[in-house]
Amino acid sequence: MPVKRLHVTPLFVCIGKVLRAQGVSGELKVLSYSDVAGQFQWLEVIYLGPTGELAAPYTVAEVREQGKYVFLKLTAHDSMTAIEHLQNQYCFIPEDELAPLAEDQFYIDNLIGLEVHTVQGEKIGQVTDILQNPANDILVVEYDQRAVYIPMVEEFIEEISIEQDCIRITPINGLLDTYNAY
After folding, report:
1. Segment 84-127, tens digit of pLDDT
2. 17 and 53 share one domain
3. With contact defined as beta carbons under 8 Å apart, do 70 and 30 qualify?
4. In this structure, are 88 and 117 located in the same domain?
5. DSSP string of 37-66?
6. Domain membership flag for residue 117
7. 90: domain range?
8. What is the pTM of this model?
9. In the chain, fewer beta carbons within 10 Å around the N or the C end?
């Protein structure tokens, strides 16, 4: 009996959102979700769609960055009408094409779901979200059936270990009190 190979699709990571067409030459204005400089610069193919599962591949002809905005020119899409259907679609790349990070940087998707413990070993809860603020990111941790907000600064975060699925913190007095939780 012949054996069929299971087709496995790559896991996709969302790195931006198409805001609108830019100019008359068919350029897309994209809001970058990535903090990694140049994340779009090396792309040859980008996947656009409402979800990673429904995203279609597009060949990238040109990329230019301006702050948090990226302007993409797609091959064979040279007018506004050729790309207007892509407005409000999300930009995906396969997970294995993500740019490498520095030692003290992490992708948000890798932090969500990690368990949070004190340095003494007491389990606090699980990371459910990351709030991105100008000063510093904030871990949202489910603690005692409520959300607790832990700033991602050296004073609190002792260790982040993706391999051990754990974040170790040094909480200060009051950090886990009810006034800090919702």
Report:
1. 889 999 999 998 887 777 777 777 777 888 999 998 988 989 99
2. yes
3. yes
4. no
5. TTTTTT-SEEEEESSTTT-EEEEEEEEEEE
6. yes
7. 12-97
8. 0.63
9. N
